[in-house]
Amino acid sequence: IKSSAASDVYKRQVDNKAALENRITDTLIAVICGTSDISELDTLREYWHKNGGEEIIEFYNTWYAENVAK
Q1: pTM (two decimals)
Q2: What's the 3-state SS for the chain?
């Protein structure tokens, strides 16, 4: 992907990666250990989508379509 918009998404994805991974790990551990209700997974999904998840999906789907699925 050569556009600057895609580059910006990639940079944002990298910037958010640690925060997203930490939130996912912490929530999954809490649910598995029983310290959080399973409904927290819905909250986690919403958080992920609001904090770059949709852009990450779009970035990788575009990359895949242009580089692998030819």
Answers
A1: 0.64
A2: CCCHHHHHHHHHHHHHHHHHHHHHHHHHHHHHHCCCCCCHHHHHHHHHHHHHHHHHHHHHHHHHHHHCCC
CA–CA separation, 54 vs 39, rounded Å? 21
Tokens of 11: 């940079």
Q: What is the pLDDT of residues 3-56, one digit of tens each?
A: 555 566 556 665 677 888 899 999 999 999 999 999 999 999 999 888 888 888
| Residue 18 Cα distances to 12, 49, 66, angstroms | 11, 15, 27
